[in-house]
Amino acid sequence: MAAGQFGETQGSATPNPSKPGTSGAARELYGSERCVAEWAYVSSKPYADPFNQVELDVIFRGPEGNEQRVPAFWAGGQEWRIRYAPPRSGRYTYRTVSSDPGNPDLHGQTGTLEVSPYKGDKPLIKHGGIRVAADRRHFEHEDGTPFFWLGDTWWMGLCRRLGWPDDFETLAADRVRKGFSVVQIVAGLYPDMPPFDPRGANEAGYPWEAGYARINPGYFDMADLRIRYLAGQGLVPCVVGCWGYFLPIMGLSKIKKHWRNIIARWAAYPVVWCLAGEAAMPYYLSKHKAEDSALQKHGWTEVAKFVRSIDPYRRPITVHPSRSAMNNVEDPAVLDFDMLQTGHSDRQSIPSTIDTVTGDLDRLPRMPVLVGECCYEGILDENRQEIERFMFMTCILSGAAGHTYGANGIWQVNTPEHPYGPSPHGRCWGNTPWQVAYQLPGSEQIGHCKKLLTRYPWWRFEPHPEWVEPRWSKKDYMLPYAAGIPGEVRVVFIPTMWIPPKLSGLESGTTYRAFFFNPRTGKEQSLEDVTADATGAWQAPIMPTLEQWLIVLEKKA
After folding, report:
1. How many Cβ atoms are within 10 Å of 364's Cβ, its own excluded?
2. Quick check: 161 and 419 in contact, CB under 8 A?
3. Residue pair 125/269 in contact by the 8 Å Cβ criterion
4. Rounded distance, CA 203 to CA 251, Å?
5. Mind listing the domains of the chain with CATH numbers?
6. Is 186 helix (H, G, I), strand (E, B) or coil?
7. Segment holding 555, helix H or strand E
8. Count of beta carbons in the 10 Å neighbourhood of residue 380
9. How far apart are CA 250 and CA 253, in angstroms?
10. Are 240 and 186 in contact (CB under 8 A)?
11. pLDDT-based confidence at 15, cuts 50/70/90?
């Protein structure tokens, strides 16, 4: 069988001559470190309902003796497939474990996997998947390389309205160019539509058969192409299992089967798990909203535990909330990071955004905090690029682990021929085509801001509002924000102001190179070197224009 790929050829996983899926000689397979190897097991024993009757796992023993139990996925017919990304080079052995131990085609199959060191340059393979760093404030790759979360929102990106491959590749290329690193995407059970709405189908139909009898492998085969492509382009898929209201519709056992299928297919890729969108929000037309919300909050807590128990790679887990992920489960400890949704009301959403970010950073258990949805660009005929810049910079300088952008028109994948139209509540969020929405200026401009921040060890930044006067407070959120590393670098975001701010708390004897940075254009304008006066302060000059600016001070050698 051939190895799976994401982004480059990684060799073959070549079996011995015995027929795949039959008992007999052990397989001898070959793969590369952190690359996805894939092969099949075929049962000669027929099952009337294989998806629901049989589960198959493969237990891998690594070169250091540690074991990983990896679920396989039903691929249709009497076939199951396994995907495995060995974490390091060396010799692995494996054996299959089936829920039908009397089937020798599925149970007790053994083999070896010889894994060579990785020699390519794809970042998500070279550095490994994403995890929460030891400081519980930011993300990093498996090898310790810091990871800056700049997310984009493609909720319905697996449906056929975002055509494969041309449309999908066009959007991905634009986001890579602008510096995005994450794509939030739903595994087929979407928001803003009833179940089995034609708008949610992909080229192979719906993710589940009618009545949720079983998954549709063809749907997920088409989704595989897209998930693999994102990873190959260096974009981490933040996989949202479904919208939260599917839990009372489908029931907990079916949701767990849905998640087992997702993990078996995609956990080998460098993904992040978001259990559900608006996890505790009932269906729009529900007549039992309070009961549904309580059921969902309990259910997603149980699903979090289930996902943790079967994911061999321990990919980070969160939920997308109506406000705070911590409030959408019964025990926040089941989450690895806190995702927020803070409103779509332009400047009126600024207080809720800043208050929720700063408030949740003080909550326990300590975990990274980031906005997962806020002020989609262009939604409600407002929320323009200056709001996108404001939200990005103020959240990051307030201590967020990253930020997620969204554009109205992309999340629901409008096209000129097929605008999305109304949600179940009868209202339409807007029909801007995604081909227009992806070129809105806000996405480019927050990319400028990320590029600036990643010049420095941004993962060591801490909020220092006391470094600037005037400064933001709950009395006025439109005053400057400051963060950085004492004695090394200071970044101050200045909303549009007539009077330039004063920077304070500067270290005596330290000289800083200083410049203005325009987040709209990505251009900088040099200033004279800065040293503190007798009070440890420095008065900034007048900003070049009346618009948003950043002042950056970096220590001179």
Report:
1. 8
2. no
3. no
4. 26
5. 27-120 (2.60.40.10), 143-353+365-386+402-457 (3.20.20.80), 462-555 (2.60.40)
6. strand
7. strand 549-555
8. 13
9. 8
10. yes
11. very low
Contact by Cβ (8 Å): 55, 138: no
Q: d(Cα 318, Cα 337) in Å, to the nearest integer? A: 6
* H or E stretch at 255: helix 252-266
Tens of pLDDT, residue by residue over 325-378, are 999 999 999 999 999 999 999 999 999 999 999 999 999 999 999 999 999 999
Pseudo-torsion of CA 6, 150, 223, 205, nearest 10°?
Answer: -170
Intra-chain end-to-end CA distance of the chain, in Å: 56
Q: In what order do the strands lie in the sheet with 67-71?
A: 27-32, 110-116, 90-98, 56-61, 67-71
CA 189, distance to chain mean position in Å, is: 17
DSSP state of 136: S
pLDDT digit string, tens, across residues 194-242: 999 999 999 999 999 999 999 999 999 999 999 999 999 999 999 999 9
* CB-CB contact of 398 with 463 (8 Å): yes
Give the global pTM.
0.95
Cis peptide before 470 (omega within 30 of 0): yes
Say if residues 453 and 485 touch (Cβ distance below 8 Å): no
Question: How many whole angstroms separate alpha carbon 538 and alpha carbon 97?
Answer: 68
Q: Tokens for 281, please give them.
A: 């929000």
- The letter for the amino acid at 58 is V
